[in-house]
Amino acid sequence: MRGNGRMSVMNVPLPSSGVPDASFSVLGLAPVVPVVVVEDVADAVPLARALVAGGLPAIEVTLRTPAARDAIRAIAAEVPGAVVGAGTVLTPEQVTDAVTAGARFLVSPGCTDALLAAMRASGAPFLPGVSTASEVMALMERGVREMKFFPARAAGGTAYLKSLAGPLPQARFCPTGGIGPDTAPEYLALPNVGCVGGSWMLPEDAVAARDWERVERLAREAAALR
């Protein structure tokens, strides 16, 4: 364990059976979780290797493209050290598909009763999305303590999260949405923030050019933010 009590990625159990292991916290893997949109499956493995080499092992592949599920499968099978998850999970069917493909954690922009039940049943750690105090309280009533705060900047940013820390100190967040290298440290300094999500280490031109060295360098800078 690190001195701050968060689990090191080196201690995260790696499943040998394909069954998710809920014994780790997504919030403790790294200060930044890259939010990845994969258009071409061929890019998935080298992109993930660059992120892991840069110190960002938790990789959220969003289910926004036809290539997403195959990208998760490829990363899970071919990139040692990567903890690949599925983002933009909207339905119970997507939960099943993502976990079957090898996703080890799940992230949603919001939450419904059906989606929460499916994420719980999957056995994988999950971060349901919230943007209001009432949504946080509703999830806490159901035993959920770790959540995605989305869309972070539009929903009030650091000022809003700071306000939540007083009445709801048990809740911890991964803010995502409108966060970049200049603002990430402000979020990471808050006591109720475990990590942030973002895609600034994956500029479109670098991915298009398959400039994985640049991605690795940006990932390394992001990993050093805390």
Automatic annotation (TrEMBL):
Quaternary structure note: Homotrimer.
Protein name in UniProt: 2-dehydro-3-deoxy-phosphogluconate aldolase
Molecular-function GO terms, alphabetical: 2-dehydro-3-deoxy-phosphogluconate aldolase activity
PROSITE patterns xref list: ALDOLASE_KDPG_KHG_1, ALDOLASE_KDPG_KHG_2
Pfam families to which the protein is assigned, alphabetical: Aldolase
Alphabetically ordered keywords of this record: Carbohydrate metabolism, Lyase, Schiff base
Similarity annotation: Belongs to the KHG/KDPG aldolase family.
Database matches in NCBIfam families: eda, PRK05718.1
Organismal lineage: Bacteria, Bacillati, Actinomycetota, Actinomycetes, Kitasatosporales
Catalysed reaction, written as an equation: 2-dehydro-3-deoxy-6-phospho-D-gluconate = D-glyceraldehyde 3-phosphate + pyruvate
EC top class, as a word: lyase
Pathway assignment: Carbohydrate acid metabolism; 2-dehydro-3-deoxy-D-gluconate degradation; D-glyceraldehyde 3-phosphate and pyruvate from 2-dehydro-3-deoxy-D-gluconate: step 2/2
